[in-house]
Amino acid sequence: MKSVYIRGNASLYGEVTIQGSKNAALPIMAAALLVPGVCVLENCPRISDVECMCRILESIGCGVVRKGRQIRIDAASLTGSRLPGEYVARMRSSVMLMGPLLGRLGEVSLCHPGGCVIGDRPIDMHIRALSRMGASCRDDGSLLFASSCGLRGTLIRLDYPSVGATENVIMAAVLADGVTCLENCAQEPEIARLCEFLTCCGASIARKGPGRLMIRGQSRLRPCVYTIPADRIVAGTYLCACLAAGGEVFLRGAPAGENDALEKTAERMGAGLERTPAGLLVRRTGSLLSPGEVTTGSFPSFPTDLQSPLLAAMAQAEGESRLKETVFNGRFGVAEELNRMGAGITVEKDLARIPGGRKLTGRRVRARELRGGAALVVAGLCARGDTLVENRGYVDRGYEDICRDLRLLGASVQEG
Ligand code: UD1
């Protein structure tokens, strides 16, 4: 079992370059299926979820060539629409292949997608939206089948701005017959990146106000070269690490305007932030203060993916903090492990109360999902003594090399 070993009580000083974004790369890789030719994606993060997506694409007949951080995807001759259970069960994002495969081949079948254990993750909105576009979907309990004799554009209003459902509809709509008007859709930066990529391929997508997209279907898309942007969640995790451990770090390439909710929270907690064209300078040399209450939500609210790393920082702030989780109903699992380190967090339904003012103690703890695992590494940096985070595999799903990055910031962190 892979793990991370962290020597605690460290302040962070140094510079790290932020890797390419997982949540931008995965849907864009899925969207490459819509293009009968070779798309070249630069700056793809070297993480296990991207590897998993490469294997899925290969299994349905795509040519996939990876050279460093460049991935070339040749979807000219797709041979199948049945997604391999072994990989689909590992990764939630495989559901995003439904839209492009329906668009390109008119059919898709897959087992129920897996992913991190952070609460219920139904796909009813995906199914309802694709059905409205003319797909017939059948679920026999273990396998999902969807087929269509040609998707058609229509008006779709999502019940909730789901990121994945928004991406699926966009990908289904770019080759559909007619115009799709998508309302109450997600506005996360990764949606804009997917639209950018598809527009480079010749898709017609217009933003008609907040949460509203108009997509005019085309008969064919063309290949393009696209660079995956920096990962706002990785940048945010390292910002939380500096907040928790103290010090001064430069996050090279940290995207501007994508982490405003976190940056405002960090300033309330006593951090000094300086934005330069090259990245973000984070300084926390004085006391760490409670930010009061923070509530997660869809963009531009505080991102649920940074809730756990912030929880680790809040554990040591002066005064009580509260964290309200409104996106996933099972995302406080990490509190139990943080409590083993002395955080004293109490969770009631969607609200965590963090008493603060605690000096965490290094322990052997266990990651149970991606962002919670990263939060335990953050906690380990500022704990008294040494921490061993087991199940590093979860963290590797989203972080290229968290040990390398934190060592660049001066921490004593080893992989085991
Ligand atoms: C994506 C991100 C994930 C992030 C999340 C919210 C990727 C690969 N993953 O996940 O990192 O935490 O957005 O920002 O980009 N829901 C339904 N029915 C559906 C779909 C969603 O009820 O059909 C619910 C979910 O259970 C959840 C909420 O909507 O409570 C948000 O989910 P969604 O935005 O779809 O997240 P993902 O796309 O899975």
Automatic annotation (TrEMBL):
<comment type="similarity">
    <text>Belongs to the EPSP synthase family. MurA subfamily.</text>
</comment>
<dbReference type="GO" id="GO:0019277">
    <property type="term" value="P:UDP-N-acetylgalactosamine biosynthetic process"/>
</dbReference>
<protein>
    <recommendedName>
        <fullName>UDP-N-acetylglucosamine 1-carboxyvinyltransferase</fullName>
        <ecNumber>2.5.1.7</ecNumber>
    </recommendedName>
</protein>
<comment type="pathway">
    <text>Cell wall biogenesis; peptidoglycan biosynthesis.</text>
</comment>
<dbReference type="InterPro" id="IPR036968">
    <property type="entry name" value="Enolpyruvate_Tfrase_sf"/>
</dbReference>
<dbReference type="GO" id="GO:0005737">
    <property type="term" value="C:cytoplasm"/>
</dbReference>
<dbReference type="InterPro" id="IPR050068">
    <property type="entry name" value="MurA_subfamily"/>
</dbReference>
<dbReference type="GO" id="GO:0009252">
    <property type="term" value="P:peptidoglycan biosynthetic process"/>
</dbReference>
<keyword id="KW-0963">Cytoplasm</keyword>
<dbReference type="InterPro" id="IPR013792">
    <property type="entry name" value="RNA3'P_cycl/enolpyr_Trfase_a/b"/>
</dbReference>
<keyword id="KW-0961">Cell wall biogenesis/degradation</keyword>
<keyword id="KW-0132">Cell division</keyword>
<keyword id="KW-0670">Pyruvate</keyword>
<dbReference type="Pfam" id="PF00275">
    <property type="entry name" value="EPSP_synthase"/>
</dbReference>
<dbReference type="InterPro" id="IPR005750">
    <property type="entry name" value="UDP_GlcNAc_COvinyl_MurA"/>
</dbReference>
<dbReference type="InterPro" id="IPR001986">
    <property type="entry name" value="Enolpyruvate_Tfrase_dom"/>
</dbReference>
<keyword id="KW-0133">Cell shape</keyword>
<comment type="function">
    <text>Cell wall formation. Adds enolpyruvyl to UDP-N-acetylglucosamine.</text>
</comment>
<dbReference type="GO" id="GO:0071555">
    <property type="term" value="P:cell wall organization"/>
</dbReference>
<feature type="binding site">
    <location>
        <begin position="22"/>
        <end position="23"/>
    </location>
    <ligand>
        <name>phosphoenolpyruvate</name>
    </ligand>
</feature>
<feature type="binding site">
    <location>
        <position position="327"/>
    </location>
    <ligand>
        <name>UDP-N-acetyl-alpha-D-glucosamine</name>
    </ligand>
</feature>
<feature type="binding site">
    <location>
        <position position="305"/>
    </location>
    <ligand>
        <name>UDP-N-acetyl-alpha-D-glucosamine</name>
    </ligand>
</feature>
<feature type="binding site">
    <location>
        <position position="92"/>
    </location>
    <ligand>
        <name>UDP-N-acetyl-alpha-D-glucosamine</name>
    </ligand>
</feature>
<feature type="modified residue" description="2-(S-cysteinyl)pyruvic acid O-phosphothioketal">
    <location>
        <position position="116"/>
    </location>
</feature>
<dbReference type="GO" id="GO:0008360">
    <property type="term" value="P:regulation of cell shape"/>
</dbReference>
<dbReference type="GO" id="GO:0008760">
    <property type="term" value="F:UDP-N-acetylglucosamine 1-carboxyvinyltransferase activity"/>
</dbReference>
<dbReference type="GO" id="GO:0051301">
    <property type="term" value="P:cell division"/>
</dbReference>
<feature type="domain" description="Enolpyruvate transferase">
    <location>
        <begin position="7"/>
        <end position="405"/>
    </location>
</feature>
<keyword id="KW-0573">Peptidoglycan synthesis</keyword>
<keyword id="KW-0808">Transferase</keyword>
<feature type="active site" description="Proton donor">
    <location>
        <position position="116"/>
    </location>
</feature>
<keyword id="KW-0131">Cell cycle</keyword>
